[in-house]
Amino acid sequence: MFAELLLTLVTILLLWFILENYFPARKYAPGPFRLPLIGSALSLILNRSTPPFILFQEFSKRYGPVCYISTGQRKMVIIDDFETAKQILNHETWVNRPYNQRIGERSFGKPLGIIFVNGDSWKEMRRFSMRTLRDFGYGKQTSMQAVLDEEVKALISKVELIATCPEPIMEIKHLFTMPVLNILWSMVSNVRTAEDDVKLRKLIKLVDNLAKANPIGGNILSIFPFLRFVFPVWTGHTMAQKCHKELQEYFRDILERRRSEGSYNDDKRDFIDTFIQEIDRHSKIGSNPNHYTDEQFITTITDLFEG
């Protein structure tokens, strides 16, 4: 009985392998061999010491500028050709972003924000975010130059100060994090954050921990997402959930403080004030669907911060 079951299983897996890799009707772009259940994951595991972007370049050299890989439930097409990438990125068909239940866990179980979302919500948030950030100086030479100059001077002063120490040792990892963050954050919250701000330092560490829990090249959850419920700590799911919750609490606190101040009604100082005005306006007129909610605000600000 066992031998028959084993033979049946092997036969099914073999047929799956043949259909996935050789059957003309299922023919995808060239790429690494795909195994049943795990897809091309074995190729990624065997080359796990190689950064994903370098590995993908090697795949494109081996299989062509357009190649296909899959890892469990996730299917990807890698494009390593400028003209093809330009054509695709400028076409309306390809503007959608990936969204699934796992991604939804970072945005209150809904497709919110501007990174992991698609459709009308993404188009509206993209339009609003770009227009509002431009209104407060983003992308404008004259408006941004003063902010850039201030951050460059602060960075040079920091380096010079450390250079005068008996042991001039500098941690490079986050050397440019604060200057870059302050340039964007000045338009988002109209505030320049001090280098030693405890809360912001904690947020930066949270984002670092998120990157470790969800590496850009993917992890075991990219192949078997259900494992986050079986082994939440081992898969990094517990860490990711903790980081998402703390980020959401921080930005919710900012939202509530701005509301309690009430000044956003009289003077739009930054992106946050403008967003709160939109929340109030759409709530008042009863927009349906309503893309401007507290949860949308928190997720969008989190996306900007993580970016």
Automatic annotation (TrEMBL):
The keyword Iron applies. It holds the Pfam family p450. Transmembrane segments: none annotated. SUPFAM superfamilies: Cytochrome P450. Keywords: Heme, Iron, Metal-binding, Monooxygenase, Oxidoreductase. Its cofactor is heme. This is Cytochrome P450.
